[in-house]
Amino acid sequence: MVIPSKKFKPTPFMFPMLCKACGRCIESCPQHCIEEGTEVDPVTGLTPVVVDLEHCNYCGLCLEACPEPKGLMPLPRGLDTNDMVLSDPFTFFDEERDRRPTPETVPDERVPLPALEPMVLKGTHASAIGAVLGGCRHFFGYPITPSTEGAELMANLLPDLGGFFVQAVSEVATANMLYGCAGAGQRSMTFTSSPGFSLMLEGISYMIGAELPAVFVNVMRGGPGLGNVGPEQGDIKLVCRGLGHGNTHALVLAPASPQEMLDLTMEAFDLAFRYRNPVIVVGDGYLGQIAGRVTLPDHLVKPGLPSWAVYGDAAHRGNLHTSILLNEPDLEAHNRHLNDKYRRISEEQQRWDAHQTEDAEWLIVACNTPARMAQGAVKELRERGIKVGLFRPVSLWPFPVDGLTEALARKPRVVVVEAGSGQLEDELRMALSRRGLAPPRIDHVQRLGGVLPQQREIVDRVAALAEEVVS
Ligand code: SF4
Ligand code: SF4
């Protein structure tokens, strides 16, 4: 006995005006129900296909073949072809959306963790663990030294957590995979290093335009070009001012220890979803590789699902993410909306660490690994009786100008220490200038090409400058 299938078999339907005449459905139909059209549609100027369902077996292959989101579709239940023909294609999909359930946010859960003994972790591993604790379940990336160990650990961890690890064919593909994953409301990330990060910029610009969240950990290495695998801070300008074309900004966090690699990467996911924007964590090659004592947080995040996600259920299916706004006033309004968001981030997310700045006559400004050398220099210089403090920006964009202004209240002389040619210094100058403040005299210690400034040269530089002032 043949038991008739109770499976719903959809009837194909298409508004001719919305057919792009690509012909894929013609090739897909085993019953030859679909033919090239002969009538030019007066609205589109295209020639839509003609569907005749007399021999249709409702296999649905044409529905799968049609690449157009509003092309061939299953006839909605309860409607027949005549109803549809009388519908206005321009309003049908809006009405269809109105009939859908409203997408709702499934909130993240904060799950307490037991207190554990501190561990010794290298920076990239600490960052990967922070990502998982922050709810990241999907990784896309392309290996590049000195960030690869982070990706390698994610490849080990994510499959057991129900997530995906995908080694993309390139960094360009990586950024676009992150776009898709973020569009589905999922927490995703990549590890990369300077030349790889450069290749992701187009995708990052699209993500910022479409307001999609993901975390990019850029373990900076020597440049320009291929450079080398030594530590540098040559991407500060890129992450703060050059995230692809257009009006783009992302919150940029600069850890200075394996502990901060974990903490800031974990928090980066919350921030990315709070502002619906990529977040960049910039380390340097040394920070990625050194091991340090790391204490795990007291909780982990079990990710929920935002209402805006394009997720595979009826409620979320009507969502759309795009950065395509071809009408100039629409695009201008969108950019104003982005600017409002950037302003909010600038007000809410300035982060810094001020060390012995209260009485400082000399202020060293440094971030990432150079800040560690600078902290040692502060100690040594204080022992010699020179009043030195350290101002460490933890957010590079927005630059923590509120904290800097406080640290400059006693008018100390400033020495910027960086593994770069003045990119941090430029951010500092620009932040003060935008605040309407004249920059103080600024001296610097700079090393390049994968060489870090050493404690000895910072001490010698500040001591020599202090000597000049006295004499
Ligand atoms: S449902 Fe199957 S048989 Fe019917 S038109 Fe589509 S491809 Fe052809
Ligand atoms: S696949 Fe879709 S868009 Fe292409 S011809 Fe068929 S109905 Fe039209």
Task: Describe the protein in words.
The N terminus is likely disordered. This protein folds into three domains: 88 residues, Alpha-Beta Plaits, CATH 3.30.70; 232 residues, Rossmann fold, CATH 3.40.50; 119 residues, Rossmann fold, CATH 3.40.50. 43% of the residues are buried. The longest helix has 21 residues. 38% of the residues lie in helices and 17% in strands. Strand 7, helix 6 and strand 8 form a beta-alpha-beta unit. The protein has 471 residues and is of the alpha/beta class. The structure holds iron/sulfur cluster (2 copies). The site of one iron/sulfur cluster has 13 residues, from helix 2.
Low-confidence stretches: 1-5
The pLDDT mean sits at 94
Computed over alpha carbons, the radius of gyration is: 28 Å
Strand order, sheet with most strands: 8-7-9-10-12-11-18
Shape field: elongated
Give a short account of the largest sheet. 7 strands, mixed
CATH superfamily placement of the largest domain:
Thiamin diphosphate (ThDP)-binding fold, Pyr/PP domains
CATH architecture of the largest domain: 3-Layer(aba) Sandwich
Task: Offer a concise description of the structure.
The chain has 471 residues and is α/β, with parallel strands linked by helices.
Q: SSE layout and pairings?
A:
Layout: E1 12-13, H1 24-28, E2 34-35, E3 50-51, H2 61-65, E4 73-74, H3 81-86, H4 89-99, E5 109-112, E6 119-122, H5 123-133, E7 138-141, H6 148-157, E8 164-167, H7 171-183, E9 188-192, H8 194-199, H9 201-210, E10 215-220, H10 236-241, E11 251-253, H11 258-275, E12 279-284, H12 285-289, E13 291-294, E14 299-302, H13 328-348, E15 352-355, E16 362-365, H14 368-383, E17 388-393, E18 395-397, H15 401-407, E19 413-418, H16 423-434, E20 442-446, H17 455-470
Parallel strand pairs: 7-8, 7-9, 9-10, 10-12, 11-12, 16-17, 16-19, 19-20
Antiparallel strand pairs: 1-4, 2-3, 5-14, 6-13, 11-18, 15-17
The structure holds iron/sulfur cluster (2 copies).
